[in-house]
Amino acid sequence: MTKKNLLKTLVLVSTLACAGPALAALPDEPGDIKTGDDLAAACTPLAKGDRSDEGETAGRACSGFLGAMMQKVVESTAAGAPTTFNRIGPKQEHNLCFFLPPKLSFVDFAKLILAYRPAHPELDQRPAYETAAWTLSVNFPCPDAAVAP
C-alpha cells in the first residue's frame, strides 16, 4: 500500500470513527436505553413528533422506558407520598425527592428531559433513570428537598 493510499484509508477511518455516534441507530426497545444519551436519543423523536418509521420506533422505546419507570415509582410509593431516589450519582452521593404530578404525558416528560439535559452533560453516560429522576426532582420537587443537580 502506498503512502497516499494509506493516508486516504486513515482519513476515511478517522472520519467514520468521528461520525460513529451520528450514524448510531436510535434505540428500538426500552431495554436499549441504558444511559442519559440513549434516553435523549429515544425521546427526541417523541418530543418533536417525528413520524418517520425510525422516529416512531424510538418514540415507543422512550415511552416504554418512561412508562416502566413511572410504574415502578407508583408501585413503590404510598399514595400521595413523595418519591425518593437514594444513593444515585457516580459516588452514590445524591438523594432526590419529587412528587409525580397527577398527569404527565410521555411527550411532556420527554420534553422536560430534553430541556433539562443540555445543562447537565455529566448525566450523558450515567444510567438513564438518573436523568429521568433528576428531571422529575427539578420540575416537581418535594417542598423540603434541597435539589442540587
Question: What does the model show?
Answer:
By secondary structure, the protein is mainly α. The protein has one domain (28-139). The chain has five helices and two strands. It has helices spanning 3-23, 36-48, 53-76, 106-116, 128-139, and strands spanning 83-88, 94-98. A two-stranded antiparallel ribbon has the order 1-2. Strand 1 and strand 2 form a beta hairpin. Helix 3 (53-76) packs across helix 4. The longest helix is centred in the middle third of the chain and has 24 residues, at 53-76. Mean pLDDT is 82; it is low at 2-23.
Features:
single chain, 149 residues, mainly alpha, two-stranded antiparallel sheet, 2 strands, 7% strand, disordered N terminus
Brief digest:
By secondary structure, the chain is mostly helical. The chain has helices spanning 3-23, 36-48, 53-76, 106-116, 128-139; strands spanning 83-88, 94-98.
